[in-house]
């Protein structure tokens, strides 16, 4: 079974509580309640067993709003949101280390919390009328008292894909990446576009390669700040590469053995792979296994 990073969360998202202010008040008053430990709204505390660290509601800052992540065996789990405190723009070294250490299901809980915080961070004012908004639905929405509009956390779809041709796959690199790193091409879906059309457009724009049939493989939440990565494999019509230098520094075709060597981090591998929690890694692994 394909299990990309940031999937497999075990919290019950407890939708009925979001719609029941009394039930939410009871959850806030539950002495067993847990609050996610985050350093400066960024890196979680991760134990030696790969599990997230939690603290008690009493230890949360007094001015924080608690957002309900869900229930674990009936115990409410929250993340604390402090208005005015902003998330860092870049992933800190502490966060990168935590991502490497987290168990997959725990990373899914972290991803939900991170995306939710990032959304509140950016949506303090109504997109309809500009008035300040207030949290409702146990943290899963913001409402505007001025115009009545309700706003809900958004997810932005991104296609991420390998083109394949003659038993090789196309990978590219951006100039800002670590030396030697290559990964799957990716881009945001645009309004009025299907997944298949976005895959073909992005591959053509970035690499000049034309593709035909597109097959879906898997998807993954990506909490920086809130994308859904939709992983696909596309059959290339030909293998001529013409990169867009604004998007990519380089793009290359890699045969199966080269991908295998890269994923095994062999010293003479033709490229460095993406991190294991990124779905590009899942995509490359699935491709050498015959997906
Ligand atoms: Zn409004």
Provide structural commentary.
The chain is an alpha+beta fold. The protein has helices spanning 15-18, 21-28, 93-101, 104-122, 195-207, 256-263, 279-288; strands at residues 34-36, 38-39, 43-44, 54-56, 65-72, 75-81, 133-136, 141-144, 150-151, 156-165, 168-173, 185-188, 211-222, 227-236, 250-255. The strands form four sheets. Strands 10, 11, 12, 13, 14 and 15 form a six-stranded mixed sheet that branches. Strands 4-1-6-5 form a four-stranded mixed sheet, sandwiched between helices. Strand 13 (211-222) and strand 14 (227-236) form a beta hairpin. Bound molecules: zinc ion (ZN). Zinc ion binds at residues 126, 128-129, 131, 144, 146-147, 149.
Strand residue percentage: 25-35%
Q: What percent of the residues sit in helical stretches (DSSP H or I)? A: 10-25%
Main sheet attributes: strand count, strand direction, barrel closure: 6 strands, mixed
Judging from the principal axes of the Cα atoms, what is the shape?
Answer: globular
Topology, please?
Elements: H1 15-18, H2 21-28, E1 34-36, E2 38-39, E3 43-44, E4 54-56, E5 65-72, E6 75-81, H3 93-101, H4 104-122, E7 133-136, E8 141-144, E9 150-151, E10 156-165, E11 168-173, E12 185-188, H5 195-207, E13 211-222, E14 227-236, E15 250-255, H6 256-263, H7 279-288
Parallel strand pairs: 1-6, 10-14
Antiparallel strand pairs: 1-4, 2-3, 5-6, 7-8, 8-9, 10-11, 10-12, 11-15, 13-14
Helix pairs in contact: 6-7
Bound molecules: zinc ion.
